[in-house]
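Could someone model zinc ion with this protein?
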Amino acid sequence: MKSSWIAKSIAFDGKVRIIFMDNTYLLQEIFHRRTMSQVLKEALGRTVSAAGLIGGLLKDPQQMSLKIRASSAGLNIFAEADASGHVRGYLSEEWFQRPSEGLSLGQIIGSRGNIQVVQETGTNRMFTGITDMPYANITDDISHYYGQSEQTPTWVTVNICIDHQKQRVTSSRGVLAQLLPGADPGLMQQVQEAVDKCDFMLYPNQQHEASHELLLSPPGGGALLEIKPLHWYCECTKEMLSGLLLSLDPKELSNLVLQAEPAEVVCSHCGEKYVFSPIEIQNLLNTLQRRRTIP
Ligand SMILES: [Zn+2]
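Reply:
Sure, complex below.
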């Protein structure tokens, strides 16, 4: 399967919901869009993976967003996912303005990070929860968030393998397990042991074998209920980004037109580049001028 996917199952005698995910291709696409250090890849990869897994808990048309605030002001990581398998994630610009190469995940998050989760719980009802990040590694902090904020025993684990020489994600897999109401809290230990032992997480580079094994017999004796693709998605359009272009100094824009130079605007959420030709820039300036002259 040349796409990213999640699979949902109910296991351990109907007491645990388990979501499996392979988002290798999705992370490859994200890192292809923007160059970043190893530790930033790890941080963004984990956040996007966690959002993809949490998206597996939602029902159509619900969505959720995840915001990680590191200890230093302005250093944020965002990810969003919906029940249809759309996922996106990005880092605030501040991350790219300071060196991070050689640092660990714990060092870049620091001891005063926090996690904010905004999740739709029903029609038009949003639930916002914020917790601290005692583990400073994102995944364990999200498990901590569910225990603290929603009092639902939940465990999130991801395994992202990156070939740093080739600058490429070779594999990314994750699992989210959540106890259903009435389940003994001690059951989570068994779930973790079963998941840690399964080929899907142990041998992530064996793409087909491990997926096949998982789909035939998921750990915990459950059955798979649903498999669906995960897609990278950003709602940006050239029209939306034209507003950003117009926030620049009109003199600067007029100069570009005079010099017959195009302008490039990059969506900070997904890294997509939009090129505006001198004619398009002139048209935008004309529209702006008209708006200003109409009382
Ligand atoms: Zn975008």
